[in-house]
Amino acid sequence: LGVRGDAFMSSSHVDAAFSPLGRVRVLPTRWLALHAAVALAHKPRTSPLPIPGLNDIALDKGLESALQSELGTRLDLGGYAQLEANFFYHRYADTVYLELILDCQGNSKPALPASTFLSANAQPSICRGSGLPTASGEAHGLELFLKRDLTQHLSGFVSYTLSFASATARDGTTFTPQADVRHLFNAVLRYDFGNGLSLAARMQVRTGKMAVNTILNIPRRRLYRLEYRLPNFVRLDVRLAYAFRVSFGRMEVALGLQNATFSREATNRDCMAAPSGDPTLYPQGVVCEVDYQPFIALPNLGLRADF
């Protein structure tokens, strides 16, 4: 059991929070471990982008909170490998979502005069409110993790995550956050051929994040919010190394290539009104194209010395 106390001060404004946590671990046998944990965490409303420096600057008053819990087990497979399975559930409150900032119209009611597109009893758009737009949401899923020790010729880990995420903006609009990556597979494997020669590879396979577009239907005087999952992403990195002994210790020469598959990641989707014609070809009245960032492949040559 534990508790953490924080006081976040910005100018004359102070936000205080207490964050309790608890964890229990049971060992019914020497090869099986069970655990359950729950914790409440708080942080200021800083930039949702993980940029050093910006994460320490509060952009708005108030605190974000997250209730995080997990239930899992760990199985020892003969002393040289471990298998873990974890169920998790997270609940977020008054959180700054990146998509609410970058695409406020696409994730909330439009920031237009109420008499134009909103009914008289509609709530004000979150885009026109004071402060940063926030939302409350949740994420839950299952994680599987298999690890093999480095003492073996074949070592590394393989992991798979199945997750679901949803959120509701402060004005009542529900949306699917970009954190809703349904399937995520990671593998980091290394094979030791002996005599100092080894080959390693890292692969990631994941389903695409959600893209949002706001489409204006002028004849019906309505705005449509369309969610569309972007294409899947696959990337492979490789590394070949040779280690040898020298008088002062050990040297290793390594040649690697990041993004050996020359993969491009889908980042967004652009939509426009469909050309006139057969409505069955464009049932939503729009035609869309996926935007890809240029592929980035990084070859590298490394030299390491252990004294």
Description:
It is a single chain. This protein is mainly β. The chain is 4% helix and 62% strand. It has 3 helices and 17 strands. The strands form 3 sheets. Strands 1, 2, 3, 4, 5, 6, 7, 8, 9, 10, 13, 14 and 17 form a 13-stranded antiparallel beta sheet that branches. The longest helix is centred in the N-terminal third of the chain and has 5 residues, at 98-102. Mean pLDDT is 84; it is low at 106-124.
Task: Fill in the keyword field for this structure.
13-stranded antiparallel beta sheet, mainly beta, two-stranded antiparallel sheet, 307 residues, globular, single chain
List the helices and strands and how they pair.
Layout lengths: L1 E9 L2 E17 L2 E14 L14 E17 L4 E15 L2 H5 L1 H4 L6 H4 L17 E14 L5 E16 L4 E2 L7 E12 L2 E10 L3 E8 L4 E8 L3 E14 L2 E10 L7 E8 L12 E7 L5 E9 L1
Structural class of the helices, strands and pairings? mainly beta
Instruction: Please tell me how large the radius of gyration is.
Output: 25 Å
The total beta strand count reads 17
Characterize the biggest β-sheet: 13 strands, antiparallel
Low-confidence stretches: 106-124
| Euclidean distance between termini CA atoms | 42 Å
| Molecular shape | globular
Structure annotation, total helices: 3
Helix content: under 10%
| Average pLDDT number | 84
Strand residues, percent: over 45%
SSE order, one letter for each helix or strand: EEEEEHHHEEEEEEEEEEEE
